[in-house]
Amino acid sequence: MELAKAKDYDEMSMKAAEVVFDKITGSDRLVLGLATGSTPEKMYEYLADKLNKSNVDLSHVYTVNLDEYVGLSPEDTQSYHYYMREIFFDKVNIPLENTKLPDGAAADLDAETSAYDAMIEDLGGVDLQVLGIGRNAHIAFNEPGTSFESGTHVVDLTETTIQDNARFFEKTEDVPTKAVSMGLGTIMNAKSILLLASGEGKKQALRNMIHGEITEDVPASILQRHPDVTVITDIEDIEL
Ligand code: PGA
């Protein structure tokens, strides 16, 4: 595991954008795993800006997102489909057909989850996966207790996650209670991982991830077993 410190959220986002930019420009073909939430927002802003300024051709880039809420259509303004278009896809020239997210509105969610894993496999696997981390150390929507071997699956969101995400909705009752999420097994198959964590609220989760016991109670702790993880954080007193 590698650790890069940033002095604040802005610097963390800039450094993360540079890592992704270098990967994009240094590859002939790239499958990029993408995350949503507050943490990567500014990274996308910097990344779009850098890509556009350098006029980089992005036809070789494929993206697969970590998760989507169950029951929200891609047009729903609270969906992660919408988030990705607003924050990133509409600003860059990655062919839209190369951008994949789980369909949370699929009638047959079991079929959707296996099709999502098959699609990732067909693409040749994820080359670089961007991750945030939850206060309960979830990665994607893999809540504590999720099997380390899990593939893409339907998740019951925990109360902590629902409360944490309520800020994006008008009322807490509007937050979906289920999501489709890449599993921990799926994430571990990515060739490299870039995890971003910002703010004191994530400190304990990050410490547990880096130094704690590897246990399904701390989903992110599985990353200790991954051979190529880079953490970029603005949180003080985090060491490897
Ligand atoms: P956040 O979420 O970026 O909105 O804090 C991170 C996560 O829950 O993985």
Could you characterize the architecture of this molecule?
With 240 residues, the chain is an alpha/beta fold. The chain has a domain at 37-193 and 209-215: Rossmann fold (3-Layer(aba) Sandwich). The chain has 7 helices and 10 strands. The chain has helices at 9-25, 41-53, 80-87, 109-123, 159-165, 184-188, 203-211, and strands at residues 2-5, 30-34, 61-65, 67-69, 99-100, 128-131, 153-156, 178-181, 192-197, 229-233. The chain has a 7-stranded parallel sheet, covered by helices on one side. The chain has a 3-stranded antiparallel sheet with strand order 4-8-7, with helices on one face. α2 links the parallel β2 (30-34) and β3 (61-65). α1 packs across α2 (41-53). The termini are close together. The mean pLDDT is 97. 2-phosphoglycolic acid binds at residues 37-39, 132-134.
- Specify the overall morphology: globular
Number of strands: 10
Figure out the total of helices: 7
In terms of per-residue confidence, which ranges show pLDDT below 50 for 5 or more consecutive residues?
none
Taking the sheet with the most strands, its summary is: 7 strands, parallel
> Which hetero ligands occur in this complex?
2-phosphoglycolic acid
CATH class category name of the domain at 37-193 and 209-215: Alpha Beta
Distance between the termini: 8 Å
Q: Tell me the Rg in angstroms.
A: 17 Å
Roughly what is the average pLDDT, rounded to an integer?
A: 97
The helix/strand series, from N terminus to C terminus, equals EHEHEEHEHEEHEHEHE
What is the fold-level CATH name, i.e. the topology of the domain at 37-193 and 209-215? Rossmann fold
CATH architecture of the domain at 37-193 and 209-215: 3-Layer(aba) Sandwich
Give the spatial strand order of the biggest sheet.
1-10-9-6-2-3-5
Q: Helix fraction? A: 25-40%
Structural class: alpha/beta
Which range does the strand content fall in? 15-25%
